[in-house]
Write a structure and sequence with these properties.
mainly beta; 4-stranded antiparallel β-sheet
């Protein structure tokens, strides 16, 4: 994926290769400012809404980079943080305080606290979980076979289960957060 800092000053290109896993590019995408090798291919990544942290899953580890520093220094130890079994999906709280990390292979979700640089509360939702995102109401939504979980951003606890038929994927929400649309094979699920 490609992630842009909110001010457009840098771009982060995250690849599925073990070398040059992350390329830090200038504002015009014409020059590589830094090459980062994580020793494993990236399975997922995201840039916090405030543009201060880049999270990258490489192998089974979470690598966190401080994008406010000139060199975009990694703030996790060299091996990265344990963030579950094969994490690939994440969504950030609207205020960039936490990220909810999903490991679809195990169905585990875990909260990563961006201020303390630590993985905290976790919850096992089951092996059928497929995606996570955040709605305008600040709650996380995790999709799984026949259900959409509404998850609390404070402790990763399930607040509500919305039963559906099928396999919903990552949803989109109306700006007021009143409605969510989740693609499903073959139709959409509206909540």
């Amino acid at each position: 994926g490609i992630f842009a800092k909110p001010d457009g000053s840098k771009y982060y290109v995250v690849s599925g290769t073990s070398s040059d896993t992350v390329l830090v590019m200038n504002s015009t995408l014409t020059s590589v400012l830094r090459r980062i090798d994580l020793g494993a291919e990236a399975r997922g990544a995201g840039l916090s809404p405030d543009g201060r942290r880049l999270l990258v899953f490489a192998g089974n580890r979470l690598h966190v980079f401080d994008t406010t520093k000139t060199n975009d220094d990694e703030i996790t130890r060299e091996a990265g943080l344990d963030a579950g079994t094969s994490p690939t999906e994440l969504a950030f709280a609207l205020d960039s305080s936490v990220a909810l990390i999903l490991s679809p292979d195990s169905g585990e979700v875990a909260l990563y606290n961006l201020a303390t640089n630590s993985v905290g509360s976790s919850n096992d939702l089951g092996a059928a979980a497929t995606s996570v995102n955040v709605a305008p109401n600040g709650r996380f939504y995790v999709t799984a076979t026949n259900v959409i979980y509404e998850v609390d951003s404070a402790n990763a606890e399930v607040m509500r289960e919305i039963r559906v038929n099928g396999s919903p994927r990552k949803g989109s929400f109306t700006p007021d957060g009143k409605y969510g649309l989740f693609p499903n094979a073959p139709a959409f699920v509206a909540t």
